[in-house]
# Entry
Amino acid sequence: MRASIAIDMDDTVADTLSRHISWYKQRFGIVLAKEQLAGKSFYDAVQKEHRSAVQQHPHEADFFDQLDVIDNAVEVIQHLSQSYDIFFASAAMEYPSSFPAKYRWLRQHFPFISPMNYIFCGYKGMLNCDYLIDDSPRHLDNFKQTGLLFSAPHNSQYSNYQRVQNWQAVKSYFAKLST
Ligand SMILES: [Mg+2]
# Structure
């Protein structure tokens, strides 16, 4: 039986952070650099009076449309799919209005992964895959198999996880396992 890899969407394959940054600039005229977000969620990084708007924004149905794909995610996942069963696991229940856009986005960018392998969930501790690649430490904490922390500015302070800096590093990690 092939081993399986569950892959998070936001800030792992979909560049949600860049969407937050461009929207914030457009809405409030403030440019936040990714370096300013080290160790902080976007919510914590913005001015206090903007936080309720920031919290509300991902609940808009079009927020998850037209997100950029994180560099090399398509090529590396296509490569991994030759040896592993790939699942996309998104805690989409946090943003119920996001389901159609997330579905469309995955179909558009990862047409080689069956929609039967999409898991829109809440609690990722229920996932029974062999690996989980995710930028959120809390999801890795709940996951019972091998977790890989996908680097993002907000998680830069954590050292107690197996970290992958980018998709090339993911490719190297799995290449080493097979040698
Ligand atoms: Mg994420």
Q: What stands out?
A: The mean pLDDT is 95.
